[in-house]
Amino acid sequence: MSRPPVRLYVDQPLTVGTVLDLGAEPSSYLTRVMRLALGDDILVFNGRDGEHLAAIVEADRRACRIQSKEMVRAQTSGPDIDYLFAPLKRARLDYMVQKATELGVRRMRPVLTAHTQVERVNLDRMRANVIEAAEQCGVLWLPDVLEPLSLEALLATWDHGRRLIFADEAAPSASPISALSCLGPGPLAVLVGPEGGFSPEERQLLAGQEFVTGISLGPRIMRADTAAVAALSLVNAVLGDWQ
Ligand code: SAH
User: Is residue 168 in contact with ligand 1, taking CB distance under 6 Å?
Assistant: First the structure.
């Protein structure tokens, strides 16, 4: 059985006919790991110029060259959803960034809250996880990884045209589908708190904003990485591109 073509992210511009020189890492991946050879096809995307079918025109283990044969999917950008989250420790953060990419968010931003346990966030590592997940899941856009902000600064500079959906572990258990169904179309953001939860002051601050909608994710307390997947799935199903 033939396997699906390898899908590779590149950072160079892509137009039909262009020849791209690949660096050592992708060259080694294509030739040594995936055992591809001269003339084999791969899919490439850069987050801006759609997805292209490209042929390997030089199969060097350290310096491959590929040439775009045709654009097979035009660029899309997906639903306008920001994913905002209190940073987690390494393995859970890696997982969360990968899952948010697979769930199609457009931007991700670490948010520092009262109970955030991790203060320093490795944005390069987040970007590497975004690329890995984007290659694997077929998404055409790469979510932007934005600088961390405190919750206060985030709310103080909020664009009121964007609705903020916040997963509130202390909300009385009620259907998140009903709560989300009341919202009209427009840009969205989803906020998930740290393992320590939101402080009462933060919850009050959030509840006092007219652009905020709190939702429950059911009667059990989930880890933040699980809550991310649950909240983004619900938002996609009711308001995003799963409709
Ligand atoms: N330590 C807290 C739980 C934090 S869970 C406590 O025991 O209360 C981490 C984050 O996941 C929360 O801040 C919230 O955003 C989200 N979350 C987890 N379970 C949830 C639920 N049942 N409903 C809504 N949000 C939830």
Answer: yes
